[in-house]
Amino acid sequence: MDLFSDDFTDGNALAGPLREIFAVDMTSAMGRCVSCGDEGPVAGMKVYAHAPGLVARCPSCQEVVMRLVRGPSSAWLDLRGTMSLRIPMPAE
Amino acid sequence: MRLPPGQYLTEDFPVLTAGPTLRVPTDTWEFVIITEAGEKHRWDWKQLMALPSERPTVDLHCVTKWSKLRTDWQGVSLDVLLDGVDTAADYAMVHSYGGYTTNLPYEDLRNGQAWIAYKFDGEDLTPEHGGPARLLVPHLYLWKSAKWVRGITLTDEDSPGFWESAGYHDYGDPWREQRYQGD
Ligand SMILES: [Zn+2]
After folding, report:
1. B1 lies in a domain?
2. Is B18 close to A51, i.e. CB distance below 8 A?
3. Where are the alpha helices (DSSP H) in B5-44?
4. Which residues of chain A have a CB within 8 Å of the CB of B21?
Protein backbone atom coordinates (compact mmCIF):
# COMPACT_ATOMS: atom_id res chain seq x y z
CA MET A 1 0.00 0.00 0.00
CA ASP A 2 1.15 3.53 -0.77
CA LEU A 3 2.26 5.51 2.22
CA PHE A 4 0.58 8.53 0.78
CA SER A 5 -2.11 8.41 -1.86
CA ASP A 6 -2.92 11.57 -3.69
CA ASP A 7 -5.46 11.25 -6.46
CA PHE A 8 -5.46 14.57 -8.31
CA THR A 9 -5.31 15.83 -11.86
CA ASP A 10 -3.85 19.06 -13.21
CA GLY A 11 -5.74 22.30 -13.70
CA ASN A 12 -6.69 21.48 -17.28
CA ALA A 13 -9.61 19.66 -15.62
CA LEU A 14 -10.93 23.17 -14.91
CA ALA A 15 -10.94 24.18 -18.60
CA GLY A 16 -14.51 23.13 -19.45
CA PRO A 17 -16.20 24.08 -16.17
CA LEU A 18 -14.55 27.54 -16.16
CA ARG A 19 -15.23 28.15 -19.85
CA GLU A 20 -18.88 27.57 -19.02
CA ILE A 21 -18.74 30.53 -16.63
CA PHE A 22 -16.26 32.91 -18.20
CA ALA A 23 -16.71 32.01 -21.85
CA VAL A 24 -12.93 32.19 -22.33
CA ASP A 25 -10.18 29.66 -21.72
CA MET A 26 -9.06 30.33 -18.17
CA THR A 27 -6.34 27.69 -17.95
CA SER A 28 -3.60 30.14 -18.94
CA ALA A 29 -4.81 32.77 -16.43
CA MET A 30 -2.23 33.37 -13.68
CA GLY A 31 -3.51 32.90 -10.14
CA ARG A 32 -1.77 34.16 -7.02
CA CYS A 33 -2.21 32.07 -3.87
CA VAL A 34 -3.46 33.89 -0.77
CA SER A 35 -1.65 31.46 1.50
CA CYS A 36 1.90 31.47 0.10
CA GLY A 37 1.87 34.24 -2.52
CA ASP A 38 3.13 32.04 -5.34
CA GLU A 39 1.79 32.73 -8.80
CA GLY A 40 1.12 30.14 -11.46
CA PRO A 41 -1.22 29.24 -14.29
CA VAL A 42 -4.64 27.72 -13.55
CA ALA A 43 -3.51 24.71 -15.60
CA GLY A 44 -0.79 24.07 -13.02
CA MET A 45 -3.17 23.76 -10.08
CA LYS A 46 -3.74 20.39 -8.40
CA VAL A 47 -7.38 19.50 -8.93
CA TYR A 48 -9.30 17.02 -6.78
CA ALA A 49 -12.30 15.97 -8.82
CA HIS A 50 -13.55 12.95 -6.83
CA ALA A 51 -15.53 15.23 -4.56
CA PRO A 52 -18.88 17.04 -4.44
CA GLY A 53 -17.19 19.82 -6.43
CA LEU A 54 -13.84 20.60 -8.04
CA VAL A 55 -11.21 21.55 -5.48
CA ALA A 56 -8.07 23.24 -6.84
CA ARG A 57 -5.04 23.44 -4.60
CA CYS A 58 -1.86 25.48 -4.88
CA PRO A 59 0.98 23.28 -6.21
CA SER A 60 3.41 25.05 -3.84
CA CYS A 61 1.61 25.01 -0.49
CA GLN A 62 -1.39 22.66 -1.10
CA GLU A 63 -3.90 25.19 0.24
CA VAL A 64 -7.27 25.46 -1.51
CA VAL A 65 -7.19 28.25 -4.12
CA MET A 66 -10.44 27.57 -5.99
CA ARG A 67 -13.63 25.59 -5.51
CA LEU A 68 -16.20 25.10 -8.23
CA VAL A 69 -19.56 23.51 -7.58
CA ARG A 70 -21.95 22.88 -10.46
CA GLY A 71 -25.59 22.50 -9.54
CA PRO A 72 -28.42 21.88 -11.99
CA SER A 73 -29.21 25.60 -12.39
CA SER A 74 -26.29 27.42 -10.74
CA ALA A 75 -22.54 27.25 -10.48
CA TRP A 76 -20.68 28.43 -7.37
CA LEU A 77 -17.13 29.67 -7.75
CA ASP A 78 -15.21 30.26 -4.52
CA LEU A 79 -11.96 32.13 -5.01
CA ARG A 80 -11.16 33.14 -1.44
CA GLY A 81 -7.85 31.27 -1.64
CA THR A 82 -6.86 33.24 -4.72
CA MET A 83 -5.53 36.76 -4.26
CA SER A 84 -5.85 37.65 -7.93
CA LEU A 85 -6.32 36.10 -11.34
CA ARG A 86 -4.41 37.68 -14.19
CA ILE A 87 -6.37 36.86 -17.33
CA PRO A 88 -4.73 37.26 -20.75
CA MET A 89 -6.77 39.61 -22.94
CA PRO A 90 -6.52 40.60 -26.61
CA ALA A 91 -4.63 43.90 -26.94
CA GLU A 92 -6.96 46.89 -27.18
CA MET B 1 -35.35 -1.17 0.22
CA ARG B 2 -35.43 2.54 1.01
CA LEU B 3 -33.59 5.06 -1.14
CA PRO B 4 -33.91 8.85 -0.81
CA PRO B 5 -35.07 10.76 -3.92
CA GLY B 6 -32.53 11.02 -6.74
CA GLN B 7 -30.16 8.40 -5.28
CA TYR B 8 -28.93 5.16 -6.88
CA LEU B 9 -27.65 2.07 -5.15
CA THR B 10 -23.97 1.08 -5.14
CA GLU B 11 -22.27 -1.97 -3.67
CA ASP B 12 -18.73 -0.59 -3.56
CA PHE B 13 -17.61 2.32 -1.39
CA PRO B 14 -16.45 5.24 -3.58
CA VAL B 15 -13.70 7.41 -2.13
CA LEU B 16 -14.41 11.13 -2.26
CA THR B 17 -11.92 13.67 -1.02
CA ALA B 18 -11.21 17.38 -1.33
CA GLY B 19 -7.47 16.86 -0.98
CA PRO B 20 -4.67 14.37 -0.38
CA THR B 21 -5.46 11.31 1.73
CA LEU B 22 -4.11 11.98 5.21
CA ARG B 23 -2.20 9.46 7.33
CA VAL B 24 -2.78 10.55 10.91
CA PRO B 25 -0.86 8.36 13.39
CA THR B 26 -2.88 7.31 16.44
CA ASP B 27 -0.02 8.12 18.83
CA THR B 28 -0.39 11.84 18.07
CA TRP B 29 -4.12 11.78 17.28
CA GLU B 30 -6.42 13.79 19.48
CA PHE B 31 -10.04 14.81 19.49
CA VAL B 32 -11.03 18.09 21.11
CA ILE B 33 -14.45 19.54 21.84
CA ILE B 34 -14.44 23.29 22.52
CA THR B 35 -17.58 24.82 23.99
CA GLU B 36 -19.03 28.27 23.29
CA ALA B 37 -17.44 29.34 26.63
CA GLY B 38 -14.01 28.21 25.42
CA GLU B 39 -13.89 25.13 27.65
CA LYS B 40 -11.80 22.33 26.11
CA HIS B 41 -12.45 18.61 26.42
CA ARG B 42 -9.68 16.45 25.00
CA TRP B 43 -9.33 12.72 24.28
CA ASP B 44 -6.27 10.93 22.95
CA TRP B 45 -6.51 7.64 21.07
CA LYS B 46 -6.18 5.45 24.18
CA GLN B 47 -8.88 7.39 25.96
CA LEU B 48 -11.20 7.09 22.95
CA MET B 49 -10.62 3.33 22.79
CA ALA B 50 -11.43 3.02 26.50
CA LEU B 51 -14.89 4.53 26.04
CA PRO B 52 -17.93 2.31 25.47
CA SER B 53 -18.49 1.79 21.74
CA GLU B 54 -21.49 0.97 19.60
CA ARG B 55 -21.84 -0.97 16.35
CA PRO B 56 -24.33 0.93 14.23
CA THR B 57 -25.55 -0.50 10.93
CA VAL B 58 -26.53 2.46 8.79
CA ASP B 59 -27.31 3.56 5.24
CA LEU B 60 -24.97 6.10 3.60
CA HIS B 61 -26.17 8.73 1.13
CA CYS B 62 -23.63 10.79 -0.82
CA VAL B 63 -24.70 14.06 -2.43
CA THR B 64 -23.05 12.84 -5.66
CA LYS B 65 -26.07 10.50 -5.74
CA TRP B 66 -24.77 7.09 -4.67
CA SER B 67 -26.20 5.33 -1.65
CA LYS B 68 -24.78 2.31 0.13
CA LEU B 69 -27.11 0.38 2.40
CA ARG B 70 -26.53 -1.48 5.67
CA THR B 71 -22.90 -0.52 6.32
CA ASP B 72 -21.31 -1.77 9.56
CA TRP B 73 -19.37 0.60 11.78
CA GLN B 74 -17.92 0.72 15.25
CA GLY B 75 -17.38 3.90 17.20
CA VAL B 76 -18.15 6.05 20.19
CA SER B 77 -21.50 7.80 20.28
CA LEU B 78 -21.32 11.58 20.46
CA ASP B 79 -23.77 11.24 23.36
CA VAL B 80 -20.96 9.60 25.38
CA LEU B 81 -18.52 12.39 24.49
CA LEU B 82 -20.98 15.26 25.00
CA ASP B 83 -22.62 14.03 28.21
CA GLY B 84 -19.85 15.57 30.31
CA VAL B 85 -19.73 18.79 28.30
CA ASP B 86 -21.50 21.81 29.73
CA THR B 87 -23.04 23.58 26.74
CA ALA B 88 -26.18 25.31 25.54
CA ALA B 89 -24.84 25.73 21.99
CA ASP B 90 -27.22 25.46 19.05
CA TYR B 91 -24.58 24.71 16.39
CA ALA B 92 -21.43 22.72 15.86
CA MET B 93 -18.50 23.10 13.49
CA VAL B 94 -16.63 19.87 12.82
CA HIS B 95 -12.90 20.19 12.08
CA SER B 96 -10.66 17.65 10.36
CA TYR B 97 -6.94 17.11 10.06
CA GLY B 98 -6.07 18.76 6.73
CA GLY B 99 -8.38 21.71 7.28
CA TYR B 100 -11.77 20.38 6.15
CA THR B 101 -14.81 21.69 8.04
CA THR B 102 -18.55 21.02 8.07
CA ASN B 103 -21.36 22.54 10.13
CA LEU B 104 -24.50 21.05 11.62
CA PRO B 105 -26.99 21.78 14.39
CA TYR B 106 -25.92 20.59 17.83
CA GLU B 107 -29.05 18.45 18.22
CA ASP B 108 -28.03 16.39 15.18
CA LEU B 109 -25.02 15.18 17.18
CA ARG B 110 -27.25 13.92 20.01
CA ASN B 111 -29.74 11.12 20.66
CA GLY B 112 -27.92 8.26 18.95
CA GLN B 113 -27.50 10.03 15.61
CA ALA B 114 -23.73 10.55 15.48
CA TRP B 115 -20.53 8.65 16.24
CA ILE B 116 -16.77 9.03 16.15
CA ALA B 117 -16.25 5.88 14.06
CA TYR B 118 -12.96 3.97 13.94
CA LYS B 119 -13.91 0.60 12.45
CA PHE B 120 -15.68 -0.28 9.22
CA ASP B 121 -16.78 -3.84 8.44
CA GLY B 122 -14.91 -5.01 11.55
CA GLU B 123 -11.56 -3.61 10.36
CA ASP B 124 -9.65 -0.48 11.36
CA LEU B 125 -10.94 2.42 9.30
CA THR B 126 -8.50 3.00 6.42
CA PRO B 127 -7.12 6.49 5.70
CA GLU B 128 -8.99 6.50 2.36
CA HIS B 129 -12.26 6.30 4.28
CA GLY B 130 -11.19 8.81 6.91
CA GLY B 131 -9.30 6.68 9.42
CA PRO B 132 -8.11 6.54 12.07
CA ALA B 133 -11.46 8.13 12.97
CA ARG B 134 -14.23 9.99 11.19
CA LEU B 135 -17.50 11.54 12.18
CA LEU B 136 -20.48 9.39 11.18
CA VAL B 137 -23.81 11.25 10.88
CA PRO B 138 -25.65 9.02 8.42
CA HIS B 139 -29.00 10.84 8.53
CA LEU B 140 -27.33 13.70 6.61
CA TYR B 141 -25.51 13.61 3.26
CA LEU B 142 -22.10 12.01 3.63
CA TRP B 143 -20.07 15.25 3.27
CA LYS B 144 -21.23 15.98 6.84
CA SER B 145 -19.50 12.78 8.05
CA ALA B 146 -16.09 14.45 8.14
CA LYS B 147 -13.09 12.19 7.53
CA TRP B 148 -9.94 12.47 9.70
CA VAL B 149 -11.96 14.22 12.39
CA ARG B 150 -9.96 16.14 14.99
CA GLY B 151 -12.53 18.19 16.87
CA ILE B 152 -15.83 19.95 17.22
CA THR B 153 -16.38 23.59 18.11
CA LEU B 154 -19.74 24.36 19.72
CA THR B 155 -21.20 27.76 18.88
CA ASP B 156 -24.29 29.91 19.37
CA GLU B 157 -24.31 30.99 15.74
CA ASP B 158 -24.33 28.87 12.59
CA SER B 159 -21.54 29.38 10.08
CA PRO B 160 -20.91 27.47 6.85
CA GLY B 161 -18.23 24.79 6.51
CA PHE B 162 -16.13 23.79 3.48
CA TRP B 163 -18.89 22.70 1.08
CA GLU B 164 -21.67 24.66 2.74
CA SER B 165 -19.83 27.87 1.79
CA ALA B 166 -19.47 26.77 -1.85
CA GLY B 167 -23.04 26.09 -2.89
CA TYR B 168 -24.04 23.04 -0.89
CA HIS B 169 -27.01 23.03 1.45
CA ASP B 170 -26.52 24.17 5.03
CA TYR B 171 -28.33 21.14 6.50
CA GLY B 172 -28.22 18.38 3.84
CA ASP B 173 -31.16 16.07 4.56
CA PRO B 174 -31.15 13.35 1.85
CA TRP B 175 -34.87 12.60 2.35
CA ARG B 176 -35.74 16.21 1.53
CA GLU B 177 -33.07 16.21 -1.23
CA GLN B 178 -31.30 19.23 0.27
CA ARG B 179 -28.28 19.13 -2.04
CA TYR B 180 -27.68 22.77 -2.95
CA GLN B 181 -28.42 26.13 -1.34
CA GLY B 182 -32.08 26.90 -1.96
CA ASP B 183 -33.16 23.24 -2.22
ZN1 LIG C 1 0.18 28.52 -2.09
Report:
1. no
2. yes
3. none
4. 4-7
Q: Where are the domains of chain A?
A: 17-85
Distance set, CA B134 to CA B101, B137, B154 (Å): 12, 10, 18
Kindly determine whether residue A5 and residue B165, on different chains, have CB atoms separated by under 8 Å. Answer: no
Is B21 domain-assigned?
A: no
Count of domains forming chain B:
1
Q: Write down the ipTM of this complex.
A: 0.91
* Residue (of B87, B100, B77) closest to A55 by Cα position: B100
pLDDT > 70? residue B124: yes
Assigned domain for B65 exists: yes
Q: Least CB-CB distance to A74: which of B19, B99, B167?
A: B167
Which domain range does residue B33 map to? 28-176
> Mind telling me how many Å the CA of B171 is from chain A's nearest CA?
15
Q: What is the pLDDT of residues B149-177, one digit of tens each?
A: 999 999 999 999 999 999 999 999 999 99
Sign of CA pseudo-dihedral B32, B36, B39, B41: negative
The b/e string for A5-35 (b: 16+ C-beta within 10 A; e otherwise) is eeebebbebbeebbeeeeeeebbebebbbbb
For residues B146 and B130, what is the distance between their CA atoms, to the nearest angstrom?
Answer: 8
Q: Which residues pair with B52 in a beta bridge?
A: none
Q: How far is the CA of A57 from the centre of ligand 1 (A)?
A: 8
Q: In what order do the strands lie in the sheet with A82-86?
A: A39-41, A30-33, A82-86
* Domain assignment of residue B181, yes or no: no
Cα–Cα distances (Å) from B44 to B129, B133, B136, B176, in that order, read 20, 12, 19, 37
CATH code of B123's domain:
3.90.420.10
pLDDT at A5 over 80: no
